[in-house]
Specification:
Strands 25-24-23-22-21-27-26 form a seven-stranded parallel sheet, with helices on one face. It has four domains: 172 residues, Sandwich (Jelly Rolls); 108 residues, Immunoglobulins (Immunoglobulin-like, Sandwich), CATH 2.60.40; 240 residues, Glycosidases (TIM Barrel, Alpha-Beta Barrel); 101 residues, Immunoglobulin-like. The protein has 13 helices and 36 strands. The N and C termini lie far apart (91 Å). By secondary structure, it is an alpha+beta fold. The longest helix is centred in the last third of the chain and has 25 residues. 18% of the residues lie in helices and 35% in strands. The relative contact order is 0.08. α3 runs parallel beside α4 and α5 packs parallel to α7. It is globular.
C-alpha cells in the first residue's frame, strides 16, 4: 500500500520582498543559529502575520521518510508563483492560485533519511498605472482587483491584503508505482433514451521506464445500491499521462435543485494493484439555454433565482462549517443558483452545493481587463482548462463563464477561453462573459429604482443591487473609533463604502447618528431589491429568465452590496431577498401609500409559481387593520407560471377612519398561507 503523509503544520519562513534570495542561500539561513519565524501551512501569509505583504516568501520543512518507488508532493493550493526544491534539487514550477498540482520527486533522490523541502511562493503587487488595474497579468480575479476587496479601486491601497501563500494542504505520497493524480467524470444524458453516457478521464504519474499495460477495475455504485463493474487493460506511457473510459448507465437517477427534486449521489472507484484505490462521487443532470436564454434542468424550464458570492478574501480561513452555514442561508433566502463571482473557490464549497441542491454558475478568475499580450492569452487558456478539469466532477456546476465585465476583451480574449472550455466539457453551458449589458444598477450607479419597471437589460440579469451598511455593532469592529462618527470618509472608503453613490445618486439621509445612518442605508437597499425583484419576477420569460442579486455576503469587514455582513449579521435586505425569492410568491405593486378616506386601493397583484407542481385551491386576500376588504375567487396556480390581477380588477374601498393602517395581502392554498406582503398605508381626511 502507498503512504500518504500530511506536511501541514508549522514551516520555517523567510521574507524576500525584492525576490533576490536563492535556494542555496535559504539552506544556509536554515542552519544559522537563532530563532526562525514559523508560519502554519495551510494559511495565506496575511492571516499568518505578514499583513499587507507582497513579494516572495520561502517556506521550509524538514522531515524523515523512507522514499521508494514513485513519490509525489501534492499542493492543494499555493498563491501565486510556486517553485519547489528537495534537498537542493529543483523539482518544478507552477503558476496560479486555485489549482491542485503535483511535483514528482526524481529517482535520484530516493533514499532513506532526512529531506528538506523548500518552496518559494511569490505573490507580487502589480505596478499601479502601467499594469494595474487595466493591463493586469496575474489571474486572480476578485482577489487581485475588485471594489469589494481591501482598498477597493484605490491605486495606493487596492492591492492590500495580498492573498499569497500556501493556503491549502500539502501532502507527500509515496510507495506505489502508479498515482492517479486526477479523476474526472462527465455524464451526458441521451436525448431520447433513458440512459446516460459516463466519460471517465484519468491523469496519472508512474515510475515506469517503458510503456506498460495495467489492468484497472472500475466500480460504479448507483444511488439505489445497484453496482456496475468493468475491468480494462490500459497502456500507460512512462512518467505521466492520461487515459479515458466510458460506461453506459441505464435509468439514471437525475440530480435536481433543492426546490425541484432530490440530489442522488453516484460513486466511482478506480483500483489496480499498482495504484491502489481512488474514489469520487458524482451526479447526473442535463442543462441548456435555448435561443431565448430560457434555462432547462433535465429537460424542464427553470427560472433562476440567483445571487453572487465571494465568501472570503483569504481562502485558508474559509472552513467547511462556514460554507455549510452560507449554503443554508442561500436556501433559506430562496436561492436556487449561485454565481461564484470572478474567482475559483475551495473544493469544499462545490461539494456542499452538490449536497444542498444549489446550482453553480462558475466564473473564471478574470475581473475587468488584462494584458493584451499573446502570452497572457496562452496562460489564461491553460488556467481556465485547469479550472474545468478540477471542478467538472461537481454536479452542481451548470455554467462556465469565462470573464466578468471584460469590455472589449469579450471579442479579443474570451473566444479563446470559450473554445478551451468547450474542448474539456461540452455538457455545461459555456458563456463568453457576464458583461455590463447584464448588470443593471438603477438606483445606485445611475437613475432610480423606479426604472426597474422597464425591466432593464436581461433576459439573464447577472448583477443588480445597492450597498447597505452593516449594523452599528459590526461597523464598530472595523472602522476606527475616531473615524466612525462623525465619519472620516477616507477610512470608510478603504472598506469599500461608495460616497458619491450613497449621497448623490441614492440620496440616502445620513441622519443624526450611526444607528440612523445604518437604518436608512439598509432601508434603501431593501427598497431597491424589492423593486427590482418585483418587476423582474412579474416579467418572467417575458423576457426575464433569471436574476442574480449582487451580492450575498461580505468577504472581509466592509460596506458592500451584501445582504449578510462579514460577521454573519443579516441586513434587512436579506429578508427582502428571502420574500422576493419565494418559489411560490405573491408579488405586490402598491401604486400609492397615502389615500383620502373612502377611496379605492390602488394595487396590482401577481401570484407566481416557479415550482414544477401546480397549486390548487388558491386565493388572494387583502386586509387593512385586520379587516378583509378584498378576496379573489378560487383559482389554480399553474406550475412554472403566474396569474395576474391588474389594478382595474382589484379596487376595494378603503376604510374611512383616518390614520396609519397595516395592509396585508396573502396568497393561500387550502387555507394555508403561501406568501404574505405587509406594509403601512396612511388614510387622510379630505380638508
Amino acid at each position: 500500500m502507498g503512504l500518504i503523509q500530511s506536511l501541514n503544520g508549522n514551516w520555517t519562513v523567510f521574507k524576500d520582498p525584492e525576490g533576490k534570495l536563492t535556494e542555496p542561500e535559504i539552506r544556509v539561513k536554515l542552519k544559522e543559529p537563532g530563532e526562525k519565524i514559523q508560519h502554519p501551512v495551510p494559511s495565506n501569509w496575511h492571516a499568518a502575520g505578514f499583513e499587507n505583504y507582497s513579494g516572495t516568501v520561502w517556506y521550509c520543512r524538514t522531515f524523515h521518510l523512507k522514499l521508494h518507488r514513485l513519490s509525489l508532493v501534492e499542493f492543494r493550493g499555493a498563491d501565486y508563483f510556486t517553485d519547489v526544491w528537495l534537498n537542493g534539487q529543483f523539482l518544478g514550477h507552477h503558476e496560479g492560485y486555485f489549482q491542485t498540482f503535483h511535483i514528482k520527486i526524481p529517482d535520484s533522490l530516493m533514499k532513506d533519511g532526512e529531506y528538506t523541502l523548500i518552496v518559494r511562493v511569490t505573490s507580487p503587487k502589480e505596478e499601479p498605472g502601467p499594469v494595474w488595474p487595466f493591463k493586469k497579468t496575474l489571474i486572480k480575479g476578485i482577489f487581485g482587483h475588485h471594489d469589494c476587496r481591501p482598498g477597493a479601486n484605490s491605486h495606493e491601497f487596492g492591492q492590500d491584503m495580498n492573498t499569497g501563500g500556501i493556503w491549502n494542504s500539502v501532502t507527500l505520497m509515496t510507495g506505489l508505482p502508479v498515482r492517479l493524480s486526477g479523476l474526472g467524470v462527465s455524464a451526458e444524458l441521451h436525448p431520447v433514451r433513458n440512459q446516460a453516457v459516463l466519460l471517465v478521464q484519468v491523469s496519472y504519474h508512474n515510475s515506469f521506464e517503458l510503456p506498460e499495460t495495467v489492468p484497472f477495475n472500475f466500480h460504479i455504485v448507483h444511488p439505489d445500491g445497484t453496482k456496475q463493474d468493468a475491468t480494462l487493460n490500459l497502456l500507460l506511457k512512462p512518467d505521466s499521462g492520461d487515459f479515458s473510459a466510458s460506461f453506459l448507465i441505464e435509468n439514471p437517477e437525475k440530480w435536481y435543485t433543492w426546490d425541484t427534486g432530490p440530489q442522488p449521489v453516484y460513486s466511482l472507484t478506480v483500483t489496480s494493484e499498482l495504484s491502489g484505490e481512488n474514489r469520487i462521487n458524482f451526479g447526473i443532470k442535463s442543462v441548456r439555454l435555448d435561443e431565448k436564454k430560457h434555462f432547462f434542468l433535465n429537460g424542464k424550464r427553470l427560472f433562476l433565482r440567483g445571487t453572487n458570492v465571494i465568501p472570503e478574501q483569504l481562502l485558508s480561513t474559509l472552513s467547511s462549517d462556514r460554507i455549510e452555514t452560507l449554503a443554508e442561508a442561500m436556501k433559506e433566502a430562496g436561492v436556487n443558483c449561485v454565481r461564484v463571482h470572478a474567482h475559483v473557490n475551495r473544493e469544499e464549497f462545490y461539494r456542499i452545493c452538490d449536497q444542498k441542491g444549489i446550482l453553480v454558475w462558475q466564473d473564471f478568475a478574470l475581473q475587468w481587463t488584462y494584458s493584451d499580450s499573446p502570452g497572457f492569452v496562452a496562460n489564461a487558456v491553460s488556467q481556465i482548462t485547469d479550472m474545468v478539469c478540477q471542478l467538472k466532477n461537481h454536479v452542481s456546476i451548470a455554467v462556465w463563464c469565462c470573464h466578468n465585465e471584460p469590455g472589449d476583451q469579450i471579442h479579443t480574449l474570451d473566444p479563446f477561453l470559450q473554445r478551451a472550455v468547450l474542448a474539456e466539457d461540452a455538457t455545461r453551458i459555456v458563456r463568453l462573459a457576464s458583461n455590463y449589458e447584464e448588470h443593471p444598477y438603477d438606483g445606485w450607479y445611475w437613475g432610480n429604482a423606479e426604472q426597474y419597471a422597464s425591466v432593464p437589460m436581461g433576459p439573464l440579469v447577472t448583477e443588480f443591487g445597492a450597498q447597505g451598511l452593516p449594523e452599528p455593532d459590526s461597523l464598530k469592529k472595523f472602522i476606527p473609533a475616531g473615524s466612525l462618527w462623525p465619519p472620516v470618509w477616507k477610512d470608510w472608503e478603504y472598506h469599500d463604502f461608495q460616497y458619491n453613490q450613497t449621497f448623490n445618486i441614492a440620496g440616502i439621509d445620513r441622519g443624526n447618528s450611526l444607528s440612523q445612518f445604518a437604518a436608512n442605508s439598509q432601508s434603501y437597499q431593501s427598497y431597491v431589491l424589492e423593486t427590482a425583484i418585483g418587476w423582474y419576477r412579474r416579467k418572467r420569460y417575458q423576457p426575464i429568465t433569471g436574476i442574480f442579486q449582487f451580492m450575498f455576503q461580505d468577504c472581509w469587514p466592509s460596506v458592500t452590496w451584501s445582504v449578510i455582513d462579514y460577521y454573519g449579521k443579516r441586513k434587512s435586505g436579506f429578508h427582502t431577498l428571502k420574500r422576493g425569492f419565494e418559489p411560490v410568491h405573491l408579488s405586490v405593486f402598491l401604486r400609492q401609500k397615502t389615500y383620502l378616506s373612502g377611496r379605492e386601493l390602488n394595487i396590482a397583484l401577481w401570484a407566481i409559481n416557479d415550482t414544477w407542481k401546480s397549486v390548487q385551491d388558491c386565493r388572494v386576500e387583502i386586509s387593512v387593520s385586520g379587516n378583509q376588504i378584498w378576496e379573489s375567487g378560487v383559482f389554480e396556480l399553474p406550475d412554472d407560471n403566474l396569474v395576474s390581477f391588474p389594478a382595474e380588477a382589484v379596487q376595494p374601498v378603503l376604510p374611512v377612519i383616518p390614520g396609519p393602517h397595516r395592509l396585508i395581502a396573502r396568497l393561500t392554498a387550502g387555507g394555508k398561507i403561501l406568501s404574505e406582503y405587509r406594509t403601512e398605508i396612511e388614510i387622510m381626511e379630505k380638508v
